[in-house]
Design a protein that fits this description.
Layout lengths: L7 E11 L2 E11 L6 E14 L7 E13 L5 E12 L9 E10 L4 E8 L10 E10 L4 E6 L1 E8 L4 E8 L3 E8 L6 E13 L10 E17 L3 E18 L7 E6 L2 E11 L1
Antiparallel strand pairs: 1-2, 1-17, 2-3, 3-4, 4-5, 5-6, 6-7, 7-8, 8-9, 9-10, 10-11, 11-12, 12-13, 13-14, 14-15, 15-16, 15-17
Amino acid sequence: MIGDGPFSTNIELDNVFAGQIKESAAAAGHQFEKKGNHRFGVSGRYFELKNNFKNIPQFYNLSVGGSYKYYLENERTLGLTASFGSASDKLFKDSRDSNITANVIYRKSEKWIFVTNYSNNRAFLNNIPLPGFVYIYHQSREKTILFGLPFAFIQMPILDGKLSIRYLGFLPYNHKLRLLYNDLSYFKPFVAMEQGPLVFFDSSRVNDRERTFWFERRASLGIEKSYGPFLKVDLQVGRAFDREYYQARSISREHSNVQRIDDATFVSINLKSNF
């Protein structure tokens, strides 16, 4: 909700194959054209985490959401996003497996955005509304620098534009870093590092507040290829490591039922379309 166009639709498909683990995701969203001082949007996402281990369930996450933005005077806006779904090995079997997220977003000026986030399935401090902010230091087609709490995004050229850096982080655990080479006309090769937990509700858990975490780190080589302004293809090959399933109330709390998974070579295919 940082930028505005007349209307937009986005679709994303993602598949990751890493040894005995497979991740698949599909997401779509649409922002309707602004009507007066109001603008609405809808979104949906499906994700599955599958494995070949007998003692670890298959996990899924299905959610639908909506957004609303009200335009105030002096470039200020007030927005709300919310989503509801299920993140479990058995989707929508029980209400305790529901996944609820909401954000209240106030844009005070061209530079400052304030956010309050609620989630019952955050990796840490879930079920607690957390305040945050974003400061837009610079925003253009070639260079974007946003930072705040708990969010940071940096995309900028270096070495006279031959390379560029792209970093996306949600503190303290989710980080994606990419270094791209820009001097080829057909595609952009890159090296990348990323890490982050995925969080689910095991339908058979005894403690309602306990959740199942899947955590891994990835290092990879890849290429980005854009087909006009509407389609972007992302291919990666690399190594997944520090991989484990475990159960805990929070990612920083004591872990139980830890299942360490062997390092594995992975292949990732991602397609994004915006129109």
